[in-house]
User: Fold this.
Amino acid sequence: MFLWGTATASYQIEGAVSEDGRGVSVWDTFAGEPGRVRDGHTGEVACDHYHRWPEDVELMAGLGVNSYRFSVAWPRVQPTGSGPVNQAGLDFYDRLVDALCARDIVPAVTLFHWDLPQELEDRGGWLDRDTAHRFAEYAAVVADRLADRVPMWITLNEPFVHMVFGYALGTHAPGRTLLLDALPVAHHQLLGHGLATAALRERGAGRVLITNNCTPVRAASADPADVAAAHAYDTLHNRLFNDPVLLGKYPDMSAYGVRLDCVRDGDLDLISAPLDGLGINYYNPTRIAAPSGEGLPFTDAGITGYPTTAFGWPVVPDGLRELLTGLKARYGDALPPVYVTENGCSQHDEPGPDGTVDDRARIDYLDGHIAALDRARAEGVDVRGYYVWSLLDNFEWAEGYHQRFGLVHVDFATGRRTPKASYHWLRERLAERTGADAGPREP
Ligand code: GBH
Assistant:
C-alpha cells in the first residue's frame, strides 16, 4: 500500500511543555532567549495538540490519509535524556497510536526531530559521543511501548539541518556557531541512528528509516569554480548523510578541510546496517556558486525565475523528480525504497470573510510535486510514500508562527482549526487515487 500522509513534529505542535513530567528541551531554552525566534514566539502552547489530538486525528481521518508521521518528544519520555522513564509521557503517544490505528491510519514515528533534552545538551549534546548511546537507550524505551502497533520508524529527522542550523550557524537550538567544527554532530547523530536501528531491530520494530533532507544541486554556471563549489555543496549536504548509511563510508571531504577524527572502528558498520527505506524531505533545489570568502567552499547563488513561497523558497516541482532519479542513479541497488517524508510550502493564509481559507498556491504546489513524484516512479524509482508537511500550521522554528505550512489553518489565539482549500482538494485527490496508487498514473 502506498502511504499518503501528513507530517508534524512534537515541538512544533504539542505545547504543554511542562505537563505530565515533561523535561526541558533545547528548543524550550532557545526559544526562551531574546532574539532567537522571531517576535519571541515559543512552542509553549503551539497548536495545543497535546490536548486537542483527538480532533487532529479526526481531521486526518476526514482527509483520507492512510498514514501519519509524527515525532516523539524525547524529554517527555526521558525528562533528563537518560535513566528514569516518564510513563505519563509515553501514555500520550500510546493513546495517539491507538486512535490512529482505530482510524486505519498507519503511525510513522520519528524518534528525533530536534528537541534534545536540555540536560544532554549541557553535557555536550550531539558533539558528545555519549549522546548517541543515550539516543539508542531512548529508542529502545519507545519501541518497548509502541512497536507492537507502530510498523514504521524514522530514527532522525534531517541530521544535516540539525547540525548546520543548530551547531554550525546557531539559527536553531542549541544555537551554537561552530561552523565546520560542528562536523562531529554529523557523525554522532549517524552513530545514534545506527545504534537506535539495532535497538529497534531487537524489538521487531518493523520498517526502519532515516530521514535526510536532500536538494538537487545546480552549479550557477559552467565555470569550473562554480562547478567545483556545487560539487562541494552536494558532498556536504547530500552525500555526508546518505553515503555512510547506504554505502558504509563517508565521502571524501579532505579538499574542504573537513576531517572526521571522531569516527571509530566499527561505527560505519553500525551506521550502514540495512534499512527498509530512505526518508527524503524535499523543498527546493539549490544553485551554488564559487565561494565568496566567508570560510565555506561555496556560496548559495539563489534560484531565480520561479515562483516563491512565503518563506522565499523557490517552487520547482520537477526538482523532486530530479532528486529522486538522481539518488537512484547515484546509489543504484544500494538505494532502499524511498518515502518522501516531507514536502510542502508556507503561505500567508488567513480565513476570508466567509471563513474559508483560499490557499490555491498550495494546491498548485502539491499538485505539481505529486505529478513529479509520479514521473520519478515512472522512471523507475521505488517510491512508497508521500507526506505533506504539514497537517497544521505550526511553530516554524526560528520563524515562530509567521510561516504557515498547514493543510489546516490554526488560529493560535484560540487553537481553532479550519481546513483550508488545499485540505479539501487533497481529500478529493486521495479519494480518486486510492486503489490506483500501486503504480504511477497512466499518462
Ligand atoms: C523541514 O526542514 C523540517 O523538518 C520541518 O520541521 C520544518 O517545519 C519544515 O521543513 C519547513 O521548514 O534557502 O531557499 O534554498 C526544512 C529544511 C532548510 C529546507 C532550508 C529549505 C532552504 C531553502 N529547509 N532550505 S532556500
The pocket of GBH is lined by residues 9, 157-158, 161, 213, 281, 283-284, 286, 313, 342, 389, 396, 405 (CB under 6 Å). DSSP finds 14 helices and 13 strands in the chain. Residues 224-247 form the longest helix (24 residues).
